[in-house]
Design a protein that fits this description.
Strand content: 25-35%
Largest sheet: 7 strands, mixed
Number of strands: 15
Low-confidence stretches: none
Order of helices and strands: EEEHEEEEHEHEHEHEHEHEHEHE
Mean pLDDT: 92
Radius of gyration: 20 Å
Distance between the termini: 21 Å
Structural class: alpha/beta
Number of helices: 9
Shape: globular
């Protein structure tokens, strides 16, 4: 099969399309003919060799997590009626940026009739995390909610969820185009965090945020922590600025601020009740609407990584691996 392969840790140029051995589904797994796959910012950091404490990968490897496609074969212990079904799920240990990938059968969801496959894949990964954050956070109705990195794939979903919950939403992003997009997705106030003193603008709009969904990381994330009200809630889940938001744990305790980190957003390390079926059901209901800016083919996965790293996307990117039978 053809696959986009991270040949070594490094820049986007280390991703090369090449022939790769067909994966074989193990017990409880299926083999999927991939049509569409997601690509998210954390994959660029993993490609550079970062976050090894969270993701155990060694080059060469095939990147890509969430995928959609048709089940070709079922491994031991999996019912044959999965074969031929169009499904959405996650590749086992990455591997979605290839013509074939294996996925755990118990994590698959049959593609809903109410969503096209591109939309279903576009919402699946980010939507899962967004719903976990919604589950972890206090009720948002009537609250001041700050969303940083608000024009990214997950930031836009969080903005939508907070808006629909009845929050007063402050969206922080870089540049007018991203602010306009955030506004269109439900933000009440938008702030350009590339400008000095952006935190003062947030405080002017809110007198402090009750809830912060912090997706920017680095110094931006550290600044976002300073605008949380005493007794507030803060999630440090994003690291596109080079690391997760730094904060003073003693200060958080003194001020009664609840902080959630990336470990709280891993399905294998938290007691989340969110399922893939929940994500797609909320998408069908219109609660989660992914904004797909660019779609790349398998030969241009490196270009998708470059766009993510250069912050040029308005929304998210997808990888079109194969053309669907319906076109």
């Amino acid at each position: 099969m053809r696959a986009a392969v991270v040949t070594e840790f490094g820049g986007p140029e280390v991703i090369r399309t090449q022939e790769w051995p067909d994966p074989v589904p193990a017990a409880g797994q299926v083999l999927v003919e991939v049509e569409v796959a997601d690509v998210i910012f954390v994959e660029t950091a993993i490609r550079r060799g970062q976050h090894s404490q969270f993701f155990d990968v060694t080059p060469p490897y095939v990147p890509g997590g969430s995928l959609g496609g048709r089940v070709r074969a079922a491994g031991p212990g999996v019912a044959d009626d999965w074969i031929g079904q169009t499904v959405v799920g996650r590749a086992v240990g990455f591997g979605a940026h290839a013509e074939l990938a294996v996925a755990a059968a118990d994590g698959l969801v049959k593609a809903p009739a109410g969503l096209n496959l591109e939309t279903a894949v576009g919402v699946f990964g980010d939507g899962f995390t967004a719903l976990m954050l919604e589950e972890l956070a206090p009720p948002m109705q009537g609250k001041e909610v700050l969303v940083t990195a608000s024009a990214g794939g997950m930031g836009l979903l969080l903005t939508q969820l907070a808006h629909k919950a009845g929050a007063h939403v402050i969206a922080a992003a870089r540049g007018q185009a991203k602010l306009d997009l955030s506004k269109a997705q439900g933000a009440d106030v938008v702030v350009d965090y590339s400008r000095p003193g952006w935190d003062k603008l947030v405080l002017d709009a809110t007198n402090g945020a009750d809830i912060v969904f912090e997706g920017a990381g680095g110094e931006l994330g550290a600044t976002a922590f300073t605008v949380v009200k005493d007794g507030g809630w803060f999630s440090a889940h994003g690291a596109p600025s080079g690391g997760f938001a730094a904060y003073d744990a003693a200060e958080a305790e003194r001020r009664g601020i609840t902080v959630k980190g990336i470990v709280d957003l891993r399905a294998d390390s938290t007691s989340t009740t969110v399922t893939g079926a929940d994500v797609l059901a909320r998408a069908v209901a219109g609660d989660l609407v992914p904004v797909v800016d660019q779609t790349y083919d398998l030969d241009h996965v490196a270009d998708a990584h470059t766009a993510l790293e250069q912050r040029t996307l308005l929304g998210k990117a997808l990888i079109r691996v194969a053309q669907s039978p319906t076109g």
